[in-house]
Amino acid sequence: MKFRPVRKFRKSLLTRYVLILVVAFVFIPVLIPVSFLASWSVNLLMNPDQVIQNKRPYGTGNDIESAWHQAAAELKGASPEAVDNKLRELKKRYPDAALYWVNTAGQTRLQLPEQETVPKQWSLEDTIAFMKQRVDADPFTVVAFIGGDEQAKQGFMVLELPRKFMVIQADGRSSDSRFYGVFLAILLGAFVLLSYLFFSDIRKRLLRLEAGMTRQGPDGLPSPIQQGRADEIGRLEQAFNDMVFELKDSRQREHEEEELRKSLISHLSHDLRTPLTVLGSHLYSLRQESLTEQGQQSLALMETKISDLSGLMDHLLSYNLLSSGRYAMTIERLDVLRLVRESAAAWYPVWEKAGITADIELPEEPLYWKIDAQGFRRVLDNLFQNLVRHAGSGRYAGIAVEPRGGARALIISDQGPGMQAVSSASGAGLGLQIVDLLLREMGLARDTVSTDTGTKVYLYPSQKLNES
After folding, report:
1. Mean pLDDT, consecutive 10-residue segments, the chain of 468 residues?
2. Distance between CA 434 and CA 201 in Å, rounded?
3. Which of 16, 18, 21, 359 could hold 398 in an S-S bridge, CB 3.0 to 4.6 Å?
4. In the beta sheet, which residues pair with residue 413?
5. What is the reported pTM?
6. Which of 457, 468, 461, 456 is nearest to 439 (CA)?
7. Are 103 and 80 in contact (CB under 8 A)?
8. What's the pLDDT score for residue 459?
């Protein structure tokens, strides 16, 4: 069977899977920034306070504190007017914050904006209470000595900023990397899902093909299966269906040839009987005439050959009926030994004429098998006929019963040259084939043991249930 090449490479299974891999690798540079953007968006939705950071970029507490202390250190040795100007400049940088400074005398100077809660004159108790209130409180408060340290003796300046305007890194809050990992896991899961669906489809189609190969139809042949896509598995399905159709065509042709052969044998057998009957009648008329000794021998030879030809016709008809299952049988529980004695008695004159000594040793008790009487007689006749034709030189015919195959077997033996010897009367072997077909229909078996000193044929039930 020739397989057609794949006309379209895009229909190949390999192409489809390579396309999945290419899409996965090509989109990695695109999906990574997309995942970053998606992660940032999710974090933004879950943490709306970060929007204020974009409007008021004041930074974290550490950033504000560092910048405030640096500004205070730069005012070392500065005049009060210079300190005021610096605070006004810092107010522009922190418009949402409250700024003021206190000189060494404890007096509150410039306030941006003015606050009633800020004392005009600071005492030691006010300073301590202020510091205690502003620890981890809202607003976020930064106090710095003007000039960088208390040695400058220029006072201190204060910044108060509501914490909602700050970037707060609270402990335990997840960063963007958590959501980034989630999106990457989703992308990886999508690739795994696509691969699973791809191979699951292949597995399903292969199992369907396997079921089609093992499931037999009404005719004993596999049934065609439904074809899928035109890929490698589709081509395999098509090849399987083509094979099934060819097998069915072959089976149909074989059946037609068998029917033709059987019909031909049946017609030939019937058509040849008429001329054989005519020849037989004329030979009988010739025997009434006075013939020479040579003429008598020729006449006897012709009668023998006509008899053989008639027997061959009977064999052909019987074989035709048996092989087609049209041979009528009535299976009954019968005494086999009684049938053997009757058949041996009918053949005794033939054996006596051929100079064959019959040695029949059968037990008195009956031996019951489930057989067809006419069919079993036909088996015995064929075996006895073979004995006369092929083993007549041994001048012996033995019939006995012995154990065989777990049952009692009927034995027909001779002392001829054996089945391996060449016989002048050998034919096509239809006699033994008919014997085997008849025995099979009756549930019996045949074993043959042949040597150059004789042949033994064992007949026994193939199943112990056949014998009572």
Report:
1. 49 72 69 68 61 56 84 84 86 86 84 83 80 80 82 84 69 52 74 81 81 75 76 79 84 76 66 70 76 79 71 64 68 92 89 90 92 86 85 89 86 86 55 82 89 90 64
2. 55
3. 359
4. 398, 456
5. 0.43
6. 461
7. yes
8. 93
Phi and psi at residue 37, in whole multiples of 5°? -65, -45
Tokens standing for residue 262? 């059987």
What span, in angstroms and rounded, lies between the C-alpha atoms of 193 and 188?
Answer: 9
133 SS3 class: helix
What tokens appear for 63 in the block?
Answer: 């950033």
- Spell out the residues 6+ positions from residue 397 whose beta carbon is closer than 8 angstroms to its own: 351, 356, 357, 358, 359, 384, 387, 412, 413, 414
The contacts of residue 224 (CB under 8 Å, 6+ apart) are 212, 240, 241, 244, 245
Phi-psi region of 258 (alpha: psi -120 to 50; beta: other; left: phi over 0): alpha
**Residue type for 351, please?**
W
Of residues 175, 191, 169, 187, the one with CA closest to residue 33: 187
At position 403, the amino acid (one-letter code) is: P
Distances (CA, A) of 62 to 88, 104, 142, 397, 462: 22, 27, 10, 125, 103
Report pLDDT for 8: 54
For every residue of 52-81, DSSP letters joined together read HHHHS----HHHHHHHHHHHHHTTTT--HH
Tell me the HSE value of 215 on the side-chain side, using a 13 A CA sphere.
Answer: 9
Please give the structure tokens belonging to residue 83. Answer: 């300190």
Read off φ and ψ for residue 361, nearest 5 degrees: -125, 85
